[in-house]
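Q: Got a minute? One more chain.
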Amino acid sequence: MKSFDNFKRLKEYITFDDLPEDLKFIATFCGMEVALILIKYAAGMNFNIPKSCLNGPIRKYIIDNYNGTRANMLEISHVCNVTERHIRKVIKEHVESTAKSKQ
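A: Always. Here it is, folded:
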């Protein structure tokens, strides 16, 4: 726990320019305080954020918000950054799985 106390003293000396590129990216979008928290608690760890991490939430959003209109499909496409074809596929799979579960 003592090393965390020492970090309080050091953190005022850490500038944006002192950060490695990955942490500069985080500091730019999330703030310097978030970058410092990562330095304090996660130093030495490696992180990977897969592109697929939003697949589940996007699928849920499409199912919850699709109302069948073209304008709605365009809006969902824009919000989720997916194609209209993908939206139709998700809806079709949802309808099929719902129908199977009712049998």
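A: The chain has six helices and no strands.
Q: Perfect, thanks.
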